[in-house]
Design goal:
Blueprint lengths: L1 H23 L6 H30 L15 H5 L11 H20 L6 H29 L4 H24 L6 H9 L3 H17 L1 H5 L1
Helix pairs in contact: 2-4, 2-6, 5-6, 6-7, 6-8
C-alpha cells in the first residue's frame, strides 16, 4: 500500500512538472512564417550570389556587361561599379550571402519543429530592421545618386521588407515585442498591409523617378 500511495502521489507531481515545462516553452511559429523566411531568404541568397559572380567578372573584365543591364535605367553594371556597392570595404552581396543564408536556416529550423526563444526573435527582428534600413539607404542612392537600378538588388529589397514585416508581426502578436493592444490587434488582422504599403511606396518612387523614361 505504501508503494502504491507513493506512485499515486508521484504521478500528479510529474504531470505538474511537465505542464510547467510546457508553459515555459516558446510557442511554435506559424508554418506560413517559416515558409516565408525560407523563400525570402533563398531569394536573397540567389540575388546575392548572382551579383557576387557578376562583380568578380567585372573585376576581371571592365568591359563585361551583366545580363541584367537592359537599358540606361535598369543597369546592374552601373550599380555594381559604384562606391555604394562596397560601403563596408567589400562587395555588399557578400554580406547578403551570410545574412540571407542565416534566415533560410532559421526558417528551415521552424519547419523542422524548432521553437525559438524570445531573445532569438528579437535578435532576428533587429537584424531585419537593420536590413530594411540598409536597403532603404541603397534604394535612395540608386534612385538619386547612381541614377540606375539593379534588378537583383530590387529583389533583395522586396525580400528584406517581406521578412521584416512578417517577423515584426509575429513578435508583436506573441508579445515578444511589447506593443499596445490595438497594435497587436492590427497585426493580427492586417499583417499584410504594412509590407504591401511599403513595397507600393517604393514602386511609386521608382515609377515617378524615371516617369519620362517609362512613358517615353
Amino acid at each position: 500500500m505504501g508503494r502504491m500511495a507513493t506512485k499515486t502521489v508521484g504521478v500528479p507531481r510529474q504531470q505538474a512538472r511537465a505542464a510547467t515545462r510546457r508553459q515555459g516553452e516558446p510557442s511554435p511559429a506559424p508554418r506560413a512564417l517559416a515558409w516565408l523566411l525560407v523563400l525570402t531568404g533563398a531569394a536573397g541568397v540567389l540575388a546575392s550570389w548572382v551579383i557576387t559572380l557578376d562583380k568578380f567578372l567585372l573585376l576581371e573584365d571592365p568591359d563585361f556587361k551583366p545580363a541584367c543591364s537592359l537599358n540606361p535605367v535598369v543597369s546592374c553594371g552601373s550599380v555594381m561599379q559604384s562606391d555604394q556597392a562596397a560601403v563596408f570595404g567589400f562587395p555588399n552581396p557578400m554580406l547578403g550571402l551570410v545574412a540571407f543564408g542565416a534566415v533560410v536556416c532559421a526558417g528551415a529550423g521552424l519547419l523542422a519543429g524548432a521553437r525559438y526563444r524570445t531573445w532569438f526573435w528579437l535578435g532576428l527582428n533587429a537584424g531585419c530592421a537593420f536590413g530594411v534600413g540598409f536597403c532603404t539607404w541603397l534604394m535612395v542612392q540608386s534612385l538619386y545618386e547612381i541614377n540606375a537600378l539593379c534588378l537583383w538588388c530590387c529583389l533583395t529589397w522586396v525580400a528584406t521588407l517581406l521578412m521584416f514585416w512578417a517577423v515584426t508581426a509575429h513578435t508583436v502578436r506573441t508579445g515578444a515585442l511589447p506593443a499596445p493592444g490595438p497594435v497587436r490587434g492590427f497585426f493580427a488582422e492586417f499583417a499584410w498591409a504594412p509590407p504591401a504599403l511599403h513595397i507600393g511606396i517604393i514602386g511609386m518612387l521608382v515609377l515617378t523617378r524615371w516617369w519620362d523614361f517609362w512613358t517615353g
